[in-house]
Specification:
Elements: H1 12-15, E1 32-36, H2 52-57, H3 59-65, E2 69-72, E3 76-77, E4 89-93, H4 100-112, E5 116-121, H5 131-138, E6 151-152, E7 175-177, E8 183-185, H6 200-216, E9 220-223, H7 261-273, E10 280-283, H8 290-294, E11 304-305, H9 308-311, H10 317-333, E12 339-341, H11 350-353, H12 375-389, E13 395-399, H13 420-424, H14 469-473, H15 479-492, E14 500-502, E15 510-515, E16 518-523, E17 529-530, E18 535-539, E19 547-548, E20 552-557
Helix pairs in contact: 6-7
The structure holds alpha-D-glucopyranose.
InterPro entries: GH, GH13_cat_dom, O16G_dom_2
Pfam family, one: Alpha-amylase
Enzyme class: hydrolase
């Protein structure tokens, strides 16, 4: 008999043990990794931008959530033209975020709680303020200083046309001309010149940066734009389709997914293998299929790759079924775990996106976007989608704020926007600011407790007071308690390491699987679904009666 009342929530005392990491090797195969976007997590200094001491001060909240590891988006020295993904010094902390000492303190405090720490490495491009790029600008065409980046002569009689027709991911041309007439390539903002990864000096420099952070004790790296480092010989022209996702596109794209990138990952794999303790590399590689993505995690390359086909799938049973089964085939086929992700700092938060299909990644939503979803409907789907994701074998990523059920901030005024996408498309694309708004910690405090002064680099929607962590803490039906319960139950049943089996007989609009000793039913359709016998472990929302309503997921243990 299935109990349909509110499932028993995990008590705080059960949660006390959760900060301990899973013992044994290769923690990353089953880990739940929480993405911290430092500028929006917690601000200790009061300048309105989150920082490393802010993260340290909130580690207990993460330990009680029940995650295994954190990944920090960049906190390195940077002019912040692309929120820190424009790095001027890969081996130092930007004063906005603190100091190297603050980093060491944060790392030690995280490790003391059994939380591993992955940092973000950005090898495709540096900031234009990086000393190497400054030297390149000061040096002559053809010099070794220029050879660290992608400088080329232009086309046209006087080289006045760019070397090819490539467009920047953020909009506009991917080439900028310098004073002496040469052009440099930047697949992203003008302030983010691409390195030339055929240059051994670049490779050696990054080996040094890996070692710098590995020596400090980091558990691994999330590798930015891991599909982009190597460009096709001759830099042939390429025009992406109109509606292409900003980082996707159909193959072959001469700047994505070139064979040569794999040599870099084999090299990095060897560097990490020199260190004790299971250090891991995770690829941010936007590729059209799971099979393509699996090439990044072959045994001598990276350890994990984000499953972007899963992140971009709609709330549609057929799509989900296909991507889940492909993922559970393709990743293990190369010896890697499947991974799962629904939100991050580059996509519309899933509490909004899943109820609003058809928006290309990176374009964002804003005040003039049509068809914005009802927040309650979006949240219901998001909770159901997370309950499905966290039941799946492998490793999962959770983006800060999704444990509060935060939606995309869709009403940000134009004058607060910072994403280069917004500027480079002259406001045609809103970009990604809406998923980067600082977290609400406490409803009654200025900036909802994000910073002691009430400053916040992006304004928080007023109705986020209801989603503040301290409010949700008091409500057993909150999204925060749902995440805690899911994570504790996932751990107790070892779902990360379980085998998944598909169950028949629930209809086309339902995802029904057995994973380990847990039956998971996700109702992705519109009609209620009869439930099997058993004890309800978790439900993504409360419901009455013996049938599972639409947009709801349950975990059931056999009696
Ligand atoms: C990655 C980051 C994104 C950044 C881009 C350029 O995709 O996730 O935020 O803008 O790389 O570095």
């Amino acid at each position: 008999m299935t109990s349909t009342s509110l499932p028993t929530q995990t008590s705080p005392s059960t949660l006390a043990a959760i900060g301990e990491s899973r013992p044994g090797a290769e923690w990353w195969r089953t880990a739940v990794i929480y993405q911290i976007y430092p500028r929006s997590f917690a601000d200790a200094s009061g300048d309105g931008i989150g920082d490393l001491p802010g993260i340290t001060s909130r580690l207990d909240d993460l330990a009680s959530l029940g995650i295994d590891a954190v990944w920090l988006s960049p906190f390195f020295t940077s002019p912040q033209k692309d929120a820190g993904y424009d790095v001027a010094d890969y081996r130092d902390v930007d004063p906005l975020f603190g100091t190297l000492g603050d980093f060491d303190d944060m790392l030690e405090a995280a490790h003391a709680r059994g939380i591993r720490v992955i940092i973000d490495l950005v090898p495709n491009h540096s900031s234009d303020k990086h000393v190497w790029f400054q030297q390149a600008l000061a040096a002559a065409p053809g010099s070794p200083e220029r050879a660290r980046y992608m400088f080329r002569d232009g086309q046209g009689e006087n080289g006045e046309l760019p070397p090819n027709n490539w467009e920047s991911v953020f909009g506009g041309p991917a080439w900028t001309r310098v004073e002496d007439g040469q052009w440099y390539l930047h697949l992203f903002d003008t302030s983010q010149p691409d390195f030339d990864w055929t240059n051994e000096e670049v490779r050696e420099e990054f080996r040094g940066t890996l070692r710098f952070w590995l020596d400090r004790g980091v558990d691994g790296f999330r590798v930015d734009v891991a599909h982009g480092l190597v460009k096709a010989d001759g830099l042939p022209d390429y025009t992406p389709p109109e509606d292409a996702d900003s980082m996707g596109g159909e193959e072959p794209v001469p700047y994505w997914g070139q064979e040569g990138v794999h040599d870099v990952w084999r090299d990095w794999h060897r560097v990490l293998a020199e260190y004790e303790g299971d250090r891991a590399l995770c690829a941010e590689a936007w590729l059209p299929t799971v099979d393509e993505t699996a090439k990044w995690v072959r045994p001598d390359e990276m350890h994990q790759a984000f499953n972007f086909p899963y992140a971009m799938s709609e709330w549609d049973a057929e799509q989900l079924r296909e991507i889940i089964s492909e993922s559970l085939r393709a990743f293990p086929a190369v010896g890697a775990p499947a991974t799962w992700v629904l939100s991050n700092h580059d996509v519309i938060r899933h509490a909004t996106r899943l109820a609003m299909p058809g928006h290309p990644q990176g374009h964002g939503v804003g005040p003039a976007t049509e068809g914005k979803p009802d927040p309650a409907a979006g949240l219901r789907r998001a909770r159901a989608a997370t309950a499905l994701m966290l039941a799946l074998p492998g490793s999962a990523y959770v983006y800060q704020g999704e444990e509060l059920g935060l939606p995309e901030a869709m009403e940000l005024p134009d004058d607060v926007r910072e994403d280069p996408t917004w500027f480079r498309t002259n406001g045609e694309r809103y970009g990604r600011d809406g998923c980067r708004v600082p977290l609400p910690w406490s409803a009654a405090d200025p900036a909802f407790g994000f910073s002691p002064t009430g400053e916040s680099w992006l304004p928080q929607p007023a109705d986020w007071s209801a989603l503040a962590r301290d409010v949700e803490e008091q409500d057993p039906e909150s999204t925060l308690w749902l995440y805690r319960t899911l994570l504790a139950t996932r751990r107790a049943h070892d779902l990360g390491a379980a085998q998944l089996e598909w169950l028949d007989g629930y209809g086309d609009d339902v995802i029904a699987v057995r994973t380990g000793d847990v039956t998971v039913i996700a109702n992705v359709g519109t009609e209620p679904v009869a439930l099997p016998a058993g004890t309800l472990l978790v439900a993504s929302d409360t419901f009455e009666g013996g049938e599972l309503p639409a947009d709801t997921t349950v975990w059931i243990a056999a009696d």
